[in-house]
Amino acid sequence: MRRPRRRLASTCIGTVAAGLLATGAALSAAPSKGWSGHDDIAMGAYLDYGPTGVARIPLLSNWLGGKEIRVGHTYLPGDQWAGIEGRVSFLADWAAWRLSRGDRMFVLNVPMQERNEDHLSDARVARLIRAGAEGEYDVHFRRLAERLVTLGVPDTVIVLGWEMNGTTYSHRCGPDPENWKAYWKRIVNEMRSVPGQRFKFDFAPNRGTDAIGWTRCYPGDDVVDIIGMDSYDQAPGETFDEQISQPYGLQQHVDFAEAHGKEISYPEWGLFRHGDNAEYVRRMLQWIEQHKPLYHTITDYCPHGVWQCKQNPESSKAFREALTPEKAGPVIPTPVVPTPVVPTPVVPTPVVPTPQLPTPQIPTPSIPTPEIPTPSVPAPEIPTPSIPAPEISPIPTPQVPTPTPDVPKPLPVSPTPAAPQVSPSPLAPKPEPAPAVTPKPKPTPKPQPQPQPETPPKNSKQWCVPLSFGEWLSRLVGKQSVCVKVDWGRESGYWPF
Question: Most Cβ neighbours (<10 Å): which of 7, 40, 118, 157?
Fold first, then answer.
């Protein structure tokens, strides 16, 4: 869509005054209740290219009942390279508006050629496209990027070479699509090379085929951030449904962007060939709400607009009702109605005896304890030492002479029982040998036989008396006796017989 050329200062002043008067009249009417959608979608309007457009933004917001206008949209002049480089004073006004709030967005349409609306021939346009693809115009776009970064708007959305599929502009694609795509790539890479930039580049054709199918001009995902579309109420498409379904129409635009993983936008939309068409305005706003573009801006001057253009009252009403936020009514306190207290009847709970169930006796299984045999450890046999009995020499018996006294011969008497004769030399008992202790492990040598005392003959002159040394010593030395020899011979004088 052609943009209006720059007007004289006096014309601008008159336009601003007329706009303010129209705005005052519009604000005198109370805004009607409408749908408060689109709050999460950045919305704006093209109101003017310079400071006047900046000044009209709060007035449009008031007309919409306080609707936040988050998008400021303007165009660089395409008559000379100086304008394309951004050497225009109004850029500073837009930058100041953008920086006053962090959630605002600045959208800038940038021509790709000077003499952009001079209706150049296809052959001339083809030569310009080839020159751009060869890098002849790189410096102009680098200067623009540096200018935007200096102004503090390095995140500007750049709508580069808009409506390239049509016939209006010198930056159109049709005369040489391949070189046009190469030219677009050079511009984007040159602007991205400037330190500090965070630009987003918006590829925005006209809806429909126009002079060439716009997909043939798409330069590639690496140099495109947003896929937009300018969609006015004009042919092809008599109804909004036809505008959706036509080749290269609204539906194909959405599908193409989704296939390439890109956000969508509507940098320009509005009324045109079909006049005051409220149905188109309502359907377009519903389409925007359904598909959630990054931003949208209506072109608000005649014949396209709904606020500054008074020839579209029905469309203006539909637009205002759809976008005016619904204001909350007064808060009416809810009356407190006391809840009656209904006594709850006390119903006795029947006592149901709990049956006593016998606890089943579960026999404990008897698990036999395994008998583990205790190993028999043989006790060591300690040998008892054999103590040899000392050899005791026999004590010699002294020969004691037994005196034989002269006894007179007894008188004969009555016979009396004869008393037993006692042998004057009794026999000494034979000593018993000591018991031998036999050790367990080894056989003990037999004890040496003890010497036996000589047995005195009967009626001998030797008297023996047994000696007792106690049980323990007697075992060692044996039984001993002391013998005394008494001489009872006839010569001794003691012999009785």
Answer: 157
Least Cα distance to 76 among 50, 42, 96, 52 occurs for 50
ω into 247 cis (within 30 of 0)? no
Residue spans of the domains in the chain: they are 9-323, 396-403+453-497
Burial (CB count <10 Å: 0-12, 13-18, 19+), residue 115:
middle
In degrees and rounded to multiples of 5, residue 166 shows phi and psi of -95, -155
Enclosing H/E stretch for 159? strand 157-160
| CA gap 386, 180 in Å, rounded | 134
Q: Which of 47, 20, 33 is nearest to 317 (CA)?
A: 33
Give residue-wise pLDDT tens across range 379-397: 555 555 454 444 444 444 4
**Is residue 410 pLDDT above 60, yes or no?**
no
**Residue 226 carries which DSSP code?**
E
324 neighbors 67 (Cβ within 8 angstroms) = yes
pLDDT at 464 over 80: no
CATH architecture of 9-323: Alpha-Beta Barrel (3.20)
Task: Of 157, 75, 166, 172, give the one whose Cα is nearest residue 116.
Answer: 172
Q: Is the peptide bond before 236 cis (omega within 30 degrees of 0)?
A: yes
Structure tokens at 169: 């502009």
Query: How distant is the alpha carbon of residue 348 from its chain centre?
Result: 56
* 122-133 vs 177-192: helix crossing angle, rounded to 10: 40
> Is 90 exceeded by the pLDDT of residue 200?
yes
Q: Within its chain, how far is the Cα of 464 from the centroid?
A: 120
8 A C-beta contact, residue 393 and residue 454: no
CA torsion sign, 442 to 448 to 449 to 452?
Answer: negative
Residue 480 burial (CB count, 10 A): 20
Listed in sequence order, the DSSP H helices in 332-403 are: none
